[in-house]
Design the sequence.
């Protein structure tokens, strides 16, 4: 198919989809409307279970089963990436040369690292109280670790990042989530039902039943998944080279 | 104002699709897909917004004192963002494999290689 | 007031999405994508979704551009190695 014909086809298809989308937009409930029946019920359910952050209650209590699917997707995707990015037979590892880092960059990165790491852990721990949770805090904590690559060099990062440990943490966190769900079954209720633990005092760290535990499991999963993912890409970008003449 | 957020979401989606179709570099294609994904976040959150409402977090808010926006679409968007990031990572890993095996990232050249 | 802020944030999102698609050089596109991530995070905060804004800030403006940059670097290194072998 010629370039021109392809562009015409795209224009016609795009115009059709655009017309349908605009028609759909005009029929949607108006932006900022007052009717949110499901939202109101979700808020009531979250308050009944003493979870201050409704989003955490939705993710780890009311839709906990969906989150299990989501972290399975994350787990499988990271596994797939690591398989695709592994060192192939016709490749070898070149030791990266230590590079000179500008002093302001080094100073800033080494000051920001502990602050960012602590922020990430705080966001994970307070997921059921304030905005944040395992997903956000996990990504923040994991990317914070990579400030070391900016501030020092790749070998320093490799030293503080034992990949085997993160492999195990990733798998353990996913199984911890599933085991917490099964514990609900053993206690005589449904899979992942939040009836196992007392709901605790509203607006304290231990409130919300199993929500903080599931949140922590997800935080651990996301943090180790992101570290592994970035390690795979960094290995490709910095270390792994193709054999000459292959 | 009543439909503007929805129209912006539709516009962002179509822009991303245009980029997907006309891209000359597979890494750029993955970036365009990320643009497409962001349109879904805008649409979902626009559906859940409520005039004069606040965030559904009750750590510093007496329950019932103010209306809150719809938390369900926010939870859906959160899922959407995480899954979107994993899709991007997986696609980039595939792109690196293609670059390694075929030595090019131009979709047209790749099509010719396949014969 | 809140309405005006929302409109401005929406227009910024549309503009930066256009720029992200129009920038054909992947390494520069990664930078534009991270701007898009920040603008989206602002929009979500204005739409009273701080959880989602935080998530978008972490993923959209840090993780995704970082992955794209690393991929670009790998591809460039490969091309350079091939030139040297020739």
Sequence:
């Amino acid at each position: 198919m010629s370039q021109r014909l392809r562009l015409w086809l795209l224009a016609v298809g795009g115009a059709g989809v655009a017309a349908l989308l605009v028609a759909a937009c005009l029929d949607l409930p108006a932006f900022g409307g007052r009717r949110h029946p499901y939202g109101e019920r979700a808020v009531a359910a979250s308050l009944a279970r003493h979870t201050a952050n409704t989003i955490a209650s939705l993710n780890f209590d009311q839709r906990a089963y969906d989150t299990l699917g989501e972290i399975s997707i994350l787990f499988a995707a990271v596994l797939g990436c690591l398989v695709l990015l592994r060192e192939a037979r016709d490749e070898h590892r070149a030791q990266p040369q230590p590079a000179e880092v500008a002093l302001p960059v080094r100073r800033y990165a080494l000051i920001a690292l502990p602050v960012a790491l602590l922020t990430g852990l705080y966001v994970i721990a307070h997921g059921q109280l304030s905005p944040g949770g395992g997903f956000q805090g996990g990504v923040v904590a994991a990317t914070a670790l990579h400030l070391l690559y900016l501030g020092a060099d790749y070998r320093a990062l490799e030293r503080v990042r034992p990949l085997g440990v993160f492999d195990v943490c990733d798998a353990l966190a996913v199984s911890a989530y599933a085991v917490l769900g099964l514990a609900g079954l053993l206690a005589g209720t449904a899979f992942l039902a939040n009836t196992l633990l007392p709901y605790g005092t509203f607006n304290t760290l231990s409130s919300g039943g199993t929500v903080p535990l599931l949140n922590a499991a997800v935080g651990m999963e996301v943090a180790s998944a992101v570290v592994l993912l970035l390690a795979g890409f960094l290995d490709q970008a910095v270390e792994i080279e193709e054999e000459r003449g292959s | 104002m009543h439909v503007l957020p929805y129209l912006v979401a539709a516009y962002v989606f179509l822009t991303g699709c245009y980029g997907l179709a006309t891209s000359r570099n597979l890494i750029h294609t993955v970036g365009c897909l990320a643009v497409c994904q962001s349109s879904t976040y805008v649409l979902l959150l626009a559906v859940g917004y409520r005039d004069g409402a606040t965030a559904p977090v009750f750590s510093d808010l007496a329950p019932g004192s103010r209306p809150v926006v719809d938390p369900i679409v926010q939870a859906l968007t959160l899922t959407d963002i995480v899954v979107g990031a994993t899709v991007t990572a997986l696609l980039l890993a595939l792109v690196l494999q293609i670059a390694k095996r075929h030595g090019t990232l131009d979709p047209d050249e790749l099509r010719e290689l396949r014969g | 007031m809140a309405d005006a802020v929302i409109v401005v944030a929406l227009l910024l999102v549309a503009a930066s999405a256009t720029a992200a698609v129009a920038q054909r050089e992947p390494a520069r596109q990664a930078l534009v994508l991270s701007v898009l991530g920040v603008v989206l995070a602002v929009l979500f905060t204005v739409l009273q979704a701080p959880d989602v804004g935080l998530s978008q800030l972490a993923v959209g403006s840090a993780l995704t551009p970082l992955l794209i940059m690393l991929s670009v670097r790998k591809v460039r290194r490969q091309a350079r190695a091939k030139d040297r072998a020739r």
User: Anything to note?
Assistant: The helical segments of chain B are 4-22, 26-48, 71-102, 107-114.
